[in-house]
Amino acid sequence: MEKIETFFVDFIKKLGGKCVTHNADEESFVWHVRPLPSTSDIQHPLARSQTDHEFPFHTDCSFESNPPEYMALFVLEQDQLGGGQFEIIQVSDIVNRLSEKSKMILLTENFKIAVPLEFRKEKDIDHIYGSILLDHHQIRYRSDIVLDHKSNALNELESIISEVPKYIPKLEKYTMILLNNRKYLHARTKILDPRRHLLRIRFNKPALYDVFSIYNETKLRPEYLTLPHTLLDYFHEQHTRLYKTLNLIVQQYHQSTEVGAEIRRTFQFESKIHNLLCELNIHRPNFDMGNYRPDILFTKGCRFTMNGKHRFEPKICEINARFVWNAFLFSVAICPGDNDNQISVNFKTMLDMIIASSQFDTTKSMTILKSKENGFDIHLFQKYWINKYHQNCRIIHPDQVHIINGQLYDRNDGYPIQQLIMELHQDEILNFSDDILHNFIHNTQLRYMNDLRTIFLVHDKRMDVSQEDWSRLLLDLNHQEWIIQQYQESIQYESMNLSGMLFCSNNRCFNLGPIRLSPNKIVNICHGGYFIRPFIHRRYVYCSEQDEILTKTKLHEQLALSRLTHSHWNRNVYLSSSGGSGGKRLFFATDIQENQRQREILVDMMLSKNVLSETDVCLNLFHCKNMYRSLEIFNDFCSMAYCTVLPMGSDVEDDKVLNIIEHFRPNVLMGSPYRLMQLALFIEKHHRTNEKIHFEKIFFACEPLDNLKRDYFKRIFHCSMCLGFYGSAETGVFACQTPEYATTRLYMYPKELVQVDIANGQIIVTNLVRQRNQLIRFNTGDLGRLIPTDDNKKYGLIEVFQSQRLIDLTPGSIMKSDIEEFMNQYDFIEWQLIIENESNNNNRTILTFRCVETTNTTIEHMKTHVNNYLTRCLGNSFSIEDHLTIRFELISYQALIRDQKKSIIS
Q: Which domains does the chain have, with CATH numbers?
């Protein structure tokens, strides 16, 4: 069997395939597809392919971030009883029948996909998130491991899969089937013959070239520069203008017009170049610009933001068009691969599109003319051409070119040159004989890049000049000519200058590419510079028409507008209720599936950080009435974590809660600090010595937990830690405390769920999973700061100082909105709450309610209401009189009206 496996692997390698392992075993290239005896070993379960069960249509390795491109099956024994039939369907047949809505969902939404235990390459990764459609013609799908079962798009996909035509190749002994794993789905009927035995190899096509065989890999920084999507819109707009301008310069160069004369005066070419350009315009009027690469300076300005905080103004500083492939192949190699990054999109197809537009014949050899220029990408292009088109690609010195009867040849071996790439400086081109230059002009059968007009007219390398140099040059009477260009000061990033690259060919702008950074004035990779990749969120994930912070008021205005403009605004939504300013009731709508995914991401973090575990039994005392969702949210967390939950709610009597505690012995207690305080006071009064009350963890939310309450809870509930959860009705719960941060104000959040920024000390949140009712740069109303962590890639850490929604009092906090709601019950024209510490006692706080009244108000009635509210918020375990002094100052409205007569006299 080992010899057969070796033969199979060698065969795939000779086809040019790169075999992929099946699991963590580095030699697991060959997988045996045959029914095995069933096992009860949970740690080593059988794969679906190792049973005799029917296996519906699926993609192999759909649980990997990058499923293998190809799969090979080698038949050792076929099913002699007619079972185990191999079936395939074409993905294009499926996609053509999908509705546009479902197609967009399957293309853009990330679904949770389980990784089967037997195929895990990393122990701690049991699932991934990914789209079902990889593009419009490729898929990753296996229905039994897709955990988002509620999607209508998935239901439509399943329905279409059952309807499209099937292809049933015959499996005979020692036959081999090669299948494109992404463009076809395959299935198997139930196996009837237990001797059926196939070998399987998954493999990819190797890269057409190794970028780091030429480039120094250490020069590529692992970080990204985050840029706004509006920057790409700006570059496309600028490129449209640039392309029109460059075309006009080329077309008008030889014309007897004012524009043509001005262009010629500007360039002032020598006669040989001038005549060459004029003849090209006459004899090759259909000008193709070919490849050109405008370089971008990141200068000081306020147009765009980098990494969410650094402002800059992009400016085109020069146009590289002399060396056709300069940095193109490097960018194609390092930029694709991230579906959420807009930078990745066009680089996947850029080379194919350029070759097609150049009209090169891919069935013929290619010649590269090269001498002085060392070049990087031109060597990568040579490998690309050979491996992609299986044609020769030779690099020869320009002196080897000679002409016989109007045909170019290699002087050394007499090989005809039918198409070529020029990697030449302008002076090297001018060194060609007149016959060869004449051939470049008149031989329309000869294909070459770039056009000589591009090299001489479009290519533009200008150096900036310092103020000292200006003075010296302009005062030098012997200096005959110079080029004047405005000096643009680059933004300094820890002594690093930045220079971007825009990749263009003819009238198409593909994308912004890698950004070069260097401490030197000239940003050069060979002299101490580095590359860093840009990251621009895809629009469906992260987009906003205005670069501003979103407030709660503005957000709910948007939702109100949505009610008027979208007839189905209230369908398939998860509604959360929250209090607004002045006590106004507000509702926030989230897509049901997106809300579910947010909770799944957070629970994954909770499990990995030991916040929850499958062995936990949780008593849930959160609130649930009147559309408040706290109870349900934490029930959901427990269900997703596969732990037991006791959903009691906040309104149940304390003695009944105690009965449940004694019966089920939960180890986790959940609730708001206010509800937990009620239970603690009841236990302390009636059941102080009850040994059955013992909790390992307390989960709290809805309001802060001060140290006094924390210590009290630990004593009454015999609990070792209290863990807080952070979020709001608008953001959802997106962060929680972990055991290592239980005694701090630090909260951990998954970076795939939210992006957290700090603006003027305020916590600003962008939800990265919501496409419907997007939440972008939302001001939570809290103050805090970001904390560096050892796990920067996956999780972030934020310290929450205080809430702008809350008023901090010793020993607790009260809600501003509750105070507003309470005060609005009274007929006051204006009111003000003044909070200050007593001058001789810093531990005592004075609350002064100053009110402008129109009618007489009973102060005692107000005092009673305020005391009841503060008792509810701060708890009964301490006396309000010991910590607070409450004053009321009533000001009559009439007393504020100025006597008009006295005012005139005075």
A: 2-204 (3.60.130.10), 212-463+489-534 (no CATH), 573-804 (3.40.50.12780), 807-896 (3.30.300.30)
